[in-house]
Specification:
Number of strands: 7
Mean pLDDT: 89
Strand order of the largest sheet: 2-3-4-1-5
Strand content: under 5%
CATH topology of the domain at 6-179: Rossmann fold
CATH class of the domain at 6-179: Alpha Beta
Length: 903
C-alpha cells in the first residue's frame, strides 16, 4: 500500500476485481500537481496480474498532434483492428495515420475506440491507464470520452489521472471522480523518513498540506518555506525545480531546453537538434530527467515547464528551429508546429507547413487540431486574402469539431478581412448555421437571409440556393412561415440557373416543405415528388453527408411515398454503419416522427429516445428540443404523465433559449393532450387554447398544427356549445383550405361530435373514409371512440359496440392506455364487459432494450447490433439477458415472435 492511500487503493482494487469478474468500471483520480496520482496509477498497474494493460500519458506539447494520446494508448491493441466493424476500422486507421484518412464524422473514431477496447477485453481482462489526461489532444479526449461512457459489461477497468482545475475529457461527462487530498501528518513524516530526510515535518506539512511531491522537493529548503509565504504550490515547486536547473552546466541547460521544447523525447532527434545524451545524463544525475530505451522523460511535467519558462524567448525559438530541422520527413506535422513556434511575425514557410498539417488532420477526423492549425497558419500569413482563406478553413473545421463559438468567431473575422468576397459569404453562411443550431433562431434567419442576398449579388447562384435552403429549415424550427416562404421564393427563382441533380434535389425538398407549410399543398407535393425522383435517379447524392437529413424530408412530409421512405431507411442504416453520429440525432428524429404518426409507436419511442440521448451528448440543443417534444407528445397519448411533463418542461426551456417556436407548440400541445387523456378537460383546454393563441401570434394557419378538433371536444365536455361552434367554424376554414385527408378526417370527426343524432353516420362515416387514406391509426381510433360514444348516447348500443371494440383494440395495440380505458368504459356502458388484454411485457423494456430487441429480432448478429447502437458486443449481450428475463423467454426466435405479436 502507498503511504496514506489505503482507502484509495482499496477502491482501485475493487475496480480491478470487478473487471476481472466481467464488469466495466471507470474512475478518474483528480487532484493538484504532485498529489500522488501517478503513484496510484503505478500501484494499480503493479497489481494487474493476468490483465492486459493499455497505458498512455497526456503531454502538454503534444496537444496539437492529432490523436497522439489515442495512438499511444491503443498501439498494443492494434492487432485486433480487423475484428471490429469495417467502417469503424477505417475511421480509426485513418485517425491514427495507419492508412489514408477520408474526413467525416469525428465520432466514428470514438465508436471505433470502444469496439477496439471491447475486442481487446475479449482476449483478457484489460486495464486502461491514462496519466495527465488533461493534456490529451482534443481528438483523443473526444474519442475516449465517447468510448468510456458506454462501457458496462466488458472486463475493462479504466483509471484516469486529471489535474484539478484543468479542462479535460471529464468536462460534460458523468464519469465518476475520486478527489485526492494531501497526506496526513503521520504519513507525511513516514514519507520523509523513508527518503532519509528529517526536516521540520510540522512546518513542511503545514506549508504543503501534505502534498507528497512538495514534501520531498521542498524538504531540502525547509528553512525557506516559511519565508516564501503562502505562494501557490505549483509556483513553489516550479521555483524549486528551476533552482536545480540553474545549477547545471550551460550545455546541459541548453540540452534540457531542446528536450522541453520537443514532444516525444526521441534521443536521436534531440541529438540532431543539439541536445546530446551525455549532456542530458548530467540532468539525470540531478534527478530532473530519466533516460532509457532511446528516450528522455522529465521527472515531472513541472520540470519541463520550469525549464521552458525560465529560458530566454530567443533561445526557445532557436530550440524549435533546431527541432524542426532535426525531425524526419514522416513527422511533417510536428515540424510544422515547431516552425510556427520559431516564427516571429509573418512566415509564409511556416504558414504553408501548418496549412498542410491542418488538411491532414481534417482528413483524419482530428477537426479540433485542424482548426487550431489553420488558425495559427492564418496568423503567420501575410495578406488579407490568404489569411481569410485559412481562417475560413479553420472556422469550418471548428464547426465540424463542435466548437461552435470558435467557428462563429473565426467566420466573423473572415467577413471583416474580405467583406465583399465569396469567402465572406461562406463565412456568413457558416455563422448562420451555428446560430440556427444554438439560437436565437430569428437572428439565424436574418444572418442567412443576408448571406443569401450577398451570394445572389455575386452571381453565386448555387451557394445562394444552399443558404436559402438552410433558411427554410431554420424557419421551420422557428415557426416563421414568412421567412420560409421568402427563402422558397428565391430558391424557385434561382433553380432555373443552377443545373444538376444536387441543387434540384435540395431545392425541391426545401420548396416542398415551405409550400406545404404555407398551405400550397399541391405545389409542395409536386416539389417533394420531384426531390424523391431526383434522389432515385442519382444515387451518388446519398453519399453526400450534407444531404443526409434532407433524404428524410420528402417521405415524412408526403407520408405516402413508399420509395422515398425506403431511401430514408437506407440512409439511416448507412449513417449507423459509418458511425456518423453528428447527423444521427436529426435523422433519428425524422424517422421517429414518421413512426409516431403511424402505428409504430414503440419504434417512435426508441427513435426519439436515441435521438435525444445522442443530441444531449453532442450538445445539439435544437435537435434535443425536437426529440424531447416528440417524446412528450407520444407520452401524452400513452398517459405517461411524469415523463411527459418532464420532457415537455425541458423542451420548453430549450425552445425559449433557441427561439424554437415549432417545438414549443408541440410541447404545449403534448401537455394539453395529456390532460385530455387523463380526463381533465379544464386543464387540457387551458393548454390547447395556449396553442391556438401561439398559432395566431405566429400567423400560422396550417390545419395540421391546429388543435381545433380537440377544442371542439373539450368545449362540448364542459357544456360550452357556443365555444364548440366557434372552434369548429375556425377549424373548418383551415382544414378545407388545406384539403388533405388527415385534416379533413379530423374536421369530419369534430362535426360528428357537435352534430344532432340523425347526422352522426354521415359525418363519422366521412371521417373514417378519410382516415383510411392516412397511416395514422391513433386518429382513426379516436374517431371510432367518439363515434361509439355518440351512438351509445343515441341508444344505438349494438352499433356503438362495433366502433368501441375496434377503438379498444387499436388503443391497446398502440399502448394508449388512457384511451383504451375510456373505450373500455364506454363499451361497458353498452352492457358488454370489455375484454382487456393483459399489459404487454414489452412495455417493461427500456427504450434501449427495445431497440436492441428490434435489431436482433430483425436478423442482426450481436456484433452488428453493437455497431449499430455504439455499444460493445458484451454490453449488447448484457441487455439481451435483461430482455429475456423481462419477457420470460430464452431465445431469439421467441423474441422475434414477441415483437411480431406486438406489431
Amino acid at each position: 500500500m502507498l503511504l496514506g492511500r489505503d482507502s484509495e487503493q482499496r477502491r482501485l482494487d475493487r475496480l480491478v476485481a470487478d473487471a476481472r469478474a466481467g464488469t466495466s468500471g471507470v474512475l478518474a483520480l483528480m487532484g493538484e500537481v504532485g498529489i500522488g496520482k501517478t503513484a496510484l496509477l503505478d500501484a494499480v498497474a503493479g497489481r494487474a496480474d493476468g490483465m492486459r494493460v493499455l497505458r498512455a500519458r497526456g503531454v502538454e506539447s503534444e496537444a496539437a498532434v492529432p490523436f497522439a494520446g489515442l495512438l499511444e494508448l491503443l498501439r498494443p491493441a492494434l492487432g485486433e483492428l480487423a475484428r471490429i466493424p469495417r467502417p469503424q476500422a477505417a475511421a480509426l486507421g485513418g485517425a491514427l495515420a495507419l492508412r489514408p484518412g477520408s474526413g467525416g464524422d469525428r465520432f466514428a473514431v470514438g465508436a471505433a475506440t470502444l469496439s477496439l477496447l471491447a475486442a481487446q477485453a475479449e482476449i483478457a481482462p484489460t486495464l486502461v491507464l491514462v496519466d495527465d489526461a488533461h493534456w490529451l489532444d482534443d481528438s483523443s479526449a473526444d474519442a475516449l470520452r465517447f468510448a468510456l461512457r458506454r462501457l458496462l459489461a466488458d472486463p475493462i477497468a479504466v483509471v484516469l489521472a486529471v489535474r484539478a482545475g484543468e479542462a479535460s475529457l471529464l468536462d460534460g461527462s458523468d464519469l465518476p471522480v475520486l478527489t485526492l487530498g494531501g497526506l496526513d501528518r503521520a504519513a507525511a513524516g513516514a514519507l520523509l523518513a523513508r527518503r532519509g530526510t528529517s526536516p521540520a515535518v510540522d512546518l513542511l506539512h503545514a506549508a504543503t498540506a501534505g502534498n507528497p511531491l512538495a514534501l520531498l522537493e521542498l524538504a531540502a529548503r525547509a528553512d525557506d518555506v516559511a519565508a516564501v509565504g503562502p505562494a501557490p504550490l505549483p509556483e513553489r515547486l516550479a521555483e524549486a525545480f528551476g533552482g536545480r536547473v540553474d545549477s547545471l552546466p550551460s550545455e546541459t541547460r541548453a540540452a534540457l531546453l531542446v528536450a522541453a521544447a520537443g514532444d516525444d523525447g526521441d534521443l536521436e532527434v534531440l541529438a540532431r537538434a543539439g541536445a546530446p545524451a551525455d549532456a542530458l545524463a548530467v540532468a539525470e544525475a540531478a534527478g530532473l530527467v530519466r533516460l532509457g530505451a532511446g528516450r528522455v522523460e522529465f521527472h515531472h511535467p513541472l520540470v519541463r515547464s520550469a525549464v521552458y519558462a525560465r529560458a530566454d524567448p530567443g533561445d526557445r525559438r532557436a530550440a524549435h528551429r533546431a527541432l524542426a530541422a532535426a525531425l524526419p520527413d514522416r513527422d511533417a506535422d510536428r515540424r510544422a508546429w515547431h516552425l510556427a513556434a520559431a516564427a516571429v511575425g509573418p512566415d509564409e514557410g511556416a504558414a504553408a507547413a501548418l496549412a498542410q498539417a491542418a488538411a491532414r488532420a481534417g482528413a483524419r477526423r482530428a477537426h479540433a487540431v485542424a482548426a487550431a492549425a489553420f488558425e495559427r497558419a492564418a496568423r503567420l500569413s501575410a495578406g488579407d486574402v490568404a489569411r481569410a482563406d485559412l481562417l475560413l478553413r479553420g472556422a469550418e473545421e471548428a464547426w465540424l469539431a463542435g466548437a461552435q463559438d470558435r467557428a462563429a468567431a473565426l467566420a466573423t473575422e473572415v467577413e471583416a478581412l474580405v467583406p465583399d468576397t465569396r469567402s465572406a459569404v461562406r463565412a456568413a453562411y457558416l455563422r448562420g448555421e451555428v446560430v440556427a443550431r444554438r439560437g436565437p433562431l430569428p437572428h439565424a434567419l436574418a444572418t442567412l437571409a443576408d448571406a443569401a442576398a450577398r451570394a445572389e449579388a455575386m452571381d453565386e447562384a448555387e451557394l445562394a440556393v444552399d443558404v436559402h435552403c438552410e433558411s427554410v429549415i431554420a424557419g421551420y424550427y422557428a415557426a416563421d412561415a414568412r421567412a420560409m416562404g421568402a427563402a422558397a421564393d428565391r430558391v424557385a427563382a434561382l433553380l432555373v440557373h443552377v443545373p444538376g441533380d444536387r441543387p434540384t434535389f435540395l431545392a425541391n425538398s426545401a420548396l416542398g416543405m415551405a409550400r406545404i407549410w404555407a398551405g400550397r399543398v399541391e405545389e409542395g407535393t409536386t416539389a417533394l415528388r420531384t426531390a424523391v425522383a431526383t434522389l432515385e435517379r442519382a444515387p451518388e447524392l446519398r453519399d453526400d453527408p450534407s444531404l443526409q437529413s434532407w433524404t428524410l424530408i420528402a417521405p415524412l412530409w408526403l407520408r405516402d411515398a413508399a420509395s422515398g421512405r425506403e431511401l430514408a431507411d437506407a440512409m439511416l442504416v448507412a449513417a449507423r454503419e459509418q458511425a456518423a453520429l453528428g447527423s444521427l440525432p436529426h435523422l433519428l428524429f425524422l424517422v421517429a416522427r414518421d413512426h409516431a404518426t403511424s402505428d409504430r409507436w414503440s419504434q417512435a419511442a426508441v427513435g426519439y429516445d436515441e435521438s435525444a440521448g445522442i443530441a444531449r451528448e453532442l450538445r445539439q440543443a435544437r435537435d434535443l428540443a425536437a426529440a424531447l417534444a416528440g417524446l412528450a407528445w407520444l407520452e401524452a397519448r400513452q398517459g405517461r404523465a411524469d415523463a411527459c411533463r418532464a420532457h415537455a418542461a425541458e423542451a420548453l426551456e430549450l425552445c425559449a433559449q433557441l427561439g424554437g417556436r415549432t417545438h414549443e407548440l408541440w410541447s404545449l400541445w403534448a401537455l394539453g393532450e395529456l390532460e385530455l387523456a387523463l380526463g381533465n378537460p379544464a386543464r387540457a383546454l387551458g393548454h390547447l387554447v395556449g396553442v391556438r393563441e401561439l398559432l395566431d401570434a405566429l400567423e400560422l394557419e396550417d390545419a395540421d398544427l391546429s388543435p381545433g378538433p380537440e377544442l371542439v371536444e373539450l368545449h362540448l365536455r364542459l357544456g360550452d356549445a357556443d365555444g364548440a361552434a366557434a372552434a369548429l367554424a375556425a377549424f373548418a376554414v383551415e382544414a378545407e383550405r388545406k384539403a388533405r385527408p388527415w385534416s379533413l378526417a379530423r374536421l369530419a370527426r369534430a362535426r360528428g361530435q357537435a352534430a344532432a343524432d340523425p347526422e352522426l353516420d354521415e359525418h363519422f362515416g366521412e371521417a373514417l373514409r378519410l382516415h383510411a387514406q392516412t397511416p395514422d391509426g391513433y386518429e382513426t381510433a379516436r374517431t371510432r371512440l367518439a363515434y361509439g360514444a355518440r351512438l351509445r348516447r343515441a341508444r344505438r348500443r349494438v352499433d356503438a359496440r362495433e366502433q368501441l371494440e375496434l377503438a379498444l383494440r387499436h388503443f391497446e395495440d398502440l399502448g394508449a392506455s388512457p384511451w383504451a380505458d375510456a373505450a373500455g368504459a364506454e363499451l361497458a356502458a353498452t352492457g358488454v364487459a370489455a375484454r382487456r388484454r393483459d399489459p404487454s411485457t414489452l412495455d417493461d423494456l427500456t427504450p434501449q432494450e427495445r431497440h436492441i430487441a428490434q435489431l436482433l429480432a430483425g436478423g442482426r448478429t450481436t456484433r452488428e447490433t453493437a455497431a449499430a447502437v455504439f455499444l460493445s458486443p458484451k454490453t449488447v449481450e448484457y441487455h439481451l439477458r435483461s430482455i429475456y428475463r423481462k419477457l420470460g423467454i430464452h431465445d431469439r426466435e421467441a423474441l422475434a415472435e414477441a415483437l411480431r405479436a406486438d406489431e
